[in-house]
From TrEMBL:
Matches recorded under InterPro entries: EXOC6/Sec15, EXOC6/Sec15_C, EXOC6/Sec15_C_dom1, EXOC6_Sec15_N, EXOC6PINT-1/Sec15/Tip20_C_dom2
A Pfam family this chain is assigned to: EXOC6_Sec15_N
The species this protein was found in: Haplochromis burtoni (Burton's mouthbrooder)
Designated name of the protein: Exocyst complex component
Main function: Component of the exocyst complex involved in the docking of exocytic vesicles with fusion sites on the plasma membrane.
Length: 805
């Protein structure tokens, strides 16, 4: 059984060997060697090999005859092949011989075809290379001609269009390598031209601004004149739109192929037209550089650079010179440069697309405005010449109007001008203070004599004056006031005109101008003129006659105040009765001055009286006179004579003033004599001295009764001496019983005698009685008198004590 299985396995292995590729026979043989029947398998394998050999032998024997026949036929074919080879060789020789000509022609034809192809290729390459060369040649010409923007356009076309079509050639490579260098060269050259442009406009800003301000001034003159045909505003609003600006507004490149820039020549429509300020500068470098940097993709870099440089220039322009305030020309140069700067910026704003924008220009203007206002405030504060301040104001107005014409807000400048108005007013007040003092110092304090009608009309035309009584008098005659009145009135009008000049062109209403002038005039009246009048009144060596003339002058000036009101109303066209209209304080000013002069008259009179009283030399120990009449003291006679002559000068004064002066003088005399009696240094007074003083008082009363000044009713002037009179009557008449009995009653004879005064004087008489009467105790009458004085003194003290409690 096992042998059958082994035989079957060997059979299977042999079939597998026969049907399997020799490369995969390894595992099959391995299974043979792994088995135990190796010898048996080898025997079977040998048997199988012998079987196959017998089969091969059978097959060869079967096909041998056919093989022999084939060999025989092959030998026959070899002979025929030899013949055929000979014929082919011969035919090939003939063919080669006959085809030499054709071969040569064909080679020539091939060469021609190659040349034709090369020529076509060359033509094609040249077709692409010639535009490159032509464009490069044009680029070189444009560079030599400094037409950089077209050159940059040519460069772009050369790089992106022509060179890629031309192919890889050495000259193309060289051109491609030079393109970045040419770009840098164009960029640097354009930037250099821009720097030159910025430097140029920095230097010529003065001229540009001067031209713009002249145009604005011309426009103001044209606007102020009566013209039926409207005139186009100058500046940006009135200038013709430049062709480049029009193109920029339409989105077209403002630079033509010829690179002419912004300043195209305008049509000569008006031969006499003043060129615009921007026509003084060629703006083409700005536009050229702008477009070059735009093409190079560096527009932001260019914009930042331009704005940065212009900001630096703005700071330089806005920095005033340290001595700018000394002359008007310094201010004019300062304003011209600023106007020139902003005219350029405004032109660039409206002729470019975004190089500068409105926000940038407004920011610059805000910066400039704050610096301008600060500089003007600082420098104008140094100025003390009203003419220079007025010229500066007109220049600032022109400066503001010029920039306003270009669309810049200038309200701050006009606000500052209103601030400067206060300074201008102060400077005017200082000048008029000097003027008024000169008028005062040069015045002769005498009525103005006029000899002819012409002279009379001349003075009355200078200041308002009407006196029908004076007009009826024949020439020569005198005006009541001195030269001071017409001169001061004319100066007041000049001051009003000066204030009006400053108010012009400030865009103020008539009411505002009127109010401004009235307030300034009030300051002039209440401060400057008032101080000058005080100076005239208080200055040294001013006499009573001068003070009298000052009162007359101020009276006439006071009466002329309503004419000043009318004068202001006429020049401002504002009725004086307008609601809230400021009233002039001239009336109160002249009243105060007149009152001060009156007070000074009273003070001067009293001082003069004091000088006379200093000459008084009373003998306080004089004996009681006998039957002879006493004469008034010499000093008092001289004093009365002086007062009579002085009061005669007061005829032109208002009656009340003369009466007050007279009453004041009499009271001062009475008070001074009373003080002499009560002087602590006078320790003793005799009855004789009292009689002498009584005589002097009577002389004063005689003067008062004579009425040195008209207007007193009855014995009113005598009341000035009533205190002294009653005191002297009490002592000279020795009427103590009446005094003591009636004291305190309204009907008391000695109502004005103060018990303190009586006691002090009685003490001095007691002292005199005690010291001069050494032997008084031996005379009964003297003892009785002494006792009487002691009794009266005691009673007076009791009376004083009663009234005190």
């Amino acid at each position: 059984m096992a042998s059958l299985e082994t035989a079957a396995e060997h059979e299977r292995i042999l079939r597998e060997i026969e049907s399997t590729d020799t490369n995969c026979i390894g595992p099959t043989l391995r299974s043979v060697y792994d088995g135990q029947e190796h010898g048996l398998f080898m025997e079977k394998l040998d048997a199988r090999i012998r079987n196959h050999d017998r089969e091969i032998e059978k097959m060869c024997n079967h096909h041998f005859q056919g093989f022999v026949d084939s060999i025989t036929e092959l030998l026959k074919v070899r002979g025929e092949a030899q013949k055929l080879k000979s014929q082919v060789t011969e035919t090939n020789g003939h063919l080669q011989e006959n085809g030499k000509e054709l071969t040569t022609s064909m080679e020539e034809l091939r060469q021609c075809r190659v040349q034709q192809r090369n020529i076509a290729t060359t033509i094609d390459k040249l077709t692409h290379c010639l535009p490159v060369l032509e464009m490069y040649s044009r680029l070189q010409e444009q560079m030599r001609a400094k037409r950089y923007y077209p050159a940059l356009r040519t460069l772009e076309q050369l790089e992106h269009t022509c060179l890629p079509k031309a192919g890889q050639y050495r000259f193309c490579s060289i051109m491609a390598e030079n393109i970045p260098k040419l770009r840098i060269q164009i960029r640097d050259t354009a930037m250099s031209q821009l720097r030159d442009f910025l430097e140029s406009i920095r230097k010529h800003s003065d001229k540009i601004g001067q031209t713009a301000m002249k145009q604005a001034q011309l426009q103001r003159s044209l606007d102020s004149s009566v013209s039926p045909q409207p005139r186009v505003l100058l500046g940006r609003r009135g200038r013709k739109a430049a062709p480049a600006a029009i193109r920029a507004g339409m989105g077209v490149n403002p630079l033509s192929e010829q690179d002419t820039g912004i300043l195209d020549v305008e049509d000569e429509e008006e031969e006499d037209e003043v060129p615009g300020a921007q026509d003084l500068v060629d703006f083409s470098p700005v536009y050229r550089c702008l477009h070059i940097y735009t093409v190079l993709g560096l527009r932001d870099v260019f914009e930042n650079y331009y704005r940065k440089q212009r900001r630096k220039q703005a700071r330089l322009v806005l920095q005033p010179h340290s001595n700018m305030h000394e002359t008007l020309e310094g201010y004019r140069r300062y304003f011209n440069q600023i106007v020139g700067f902003f005219v350029v910026e405004d032109h660039v704003l409206h002729t470019t697309q975004g190089l500068v924008n409105r926000a940038y220009v407004e920011e610059l203007w805000e910066l400039a405005l704050s610096k301008i206002v600060a500089a003007l405030r600082t420098h104008s504060s140094y100025c003390d010449d009203p003419d220079l301040v007025l010229d500066l104001k007109n220049l600032i107005v022109l400066f503001a109007d010029t920039l306003q014409g270009y669309g810049f807000p200038v309200s701050q400048l006009f606000d500052m001008l209103l601030e400067m108005r206060e300074q201008y007013g102060e400077i005017l007040l200082k000048r008029w203070n000097v003027t008024f003092r000169q008028v005062i110092d040069q015045d002769n304090y005498s009525p103005i004599p006029v000899s002819t009608e012409e002279e009379y009309r001349q003075y009355t035309s200078q200041c308002p004056f009407q006196d029908p009584e004076l007009e009826k008098l024949p020439f020569p005659k005198k005006l009541p006031f001195s030269e001071f009145v017409p001169k001061v009135y004319c100066q007041l009008k000049e001051f009003i005109y000066a204030c009006l000049k400053y108010s012009e062109d400030l865009h103020l209403s008539s009411t505002e101008v009127d109010d401004m002038i009235r307030k300034s005039t009030n300051l002039l009246l209440t401060r400057t003129l008032s101080h000058c009048l005080q100076y005239a009144i208080k200055k040294k060596n001013v006499g009573l006659a001068e003070l009298v003339q000052v009162i007359i002058n101020t009276t006439h000036l006071e009466q002329s105040c309503h004419f000043l009101e009318e004068f202001i109303s006429n020049i401002t066209n504002v009725p004086p009765d307008t609601v809230n209209a400021t009233k002039l304080y001239g009336t109160s000013t002249f009243k105060d001055a007149r009152h001060a002069a009156e007070a000074e008259i009273y003070t001067s009179l009293n001082a003069k009286i004091d000088q006379f009283l200093q000459l008084a030399d009373y003998d306080w120990m004089a004996a009681v006179p006998g039957g002879e009449n006493l004469a008034a003291s010499d000093y008092l006679i001289d004093l009365i004579a002086f007062l009579k002559s002085t009061f005669s000068v007061f005829t032109n004064l208002p009656g009340k003033v003369a009466q007050t002066a007279c009453m004041s003088s009499c009271k001062h005399i009475s008070t001074s004599l009373m003080q002499l009696l009560l002087d602590p240094e006078v320790r003793q007074i005799s009855m004789g001295a009292l009689h002498q003083l009584d005589t002097d008082v009577k002389e004063c009363e005689s003067f008062a009764r004579a009425g040195p000044v008209a207007g007193f009713q009855g014995d009113t002037l005598l009341l000035a001496f009533s205190d002294l009179r009653q005191l002297l009557d009490l002592f000279t008449q020795w009427d103590w019983s009446t005094y003591l009995a009636d004291y305190g009653k309204p009907t008391c004879k000695y109502l004005r005698v103060n018990p303190h005064t009586a006691l002090a004087l009685l003490e001095k008489m007691k002292e005199t009685s005690r010291k001069n009467n050494v032997f008084a105790q031996f005379r009964k009458t003297d003892r009785d008198r002494q006792k009487l004085i002691d009794t009266i003194i005691k009673q007076l003290r009791n009376l004083i004590a009663q009234h005190h409690t």
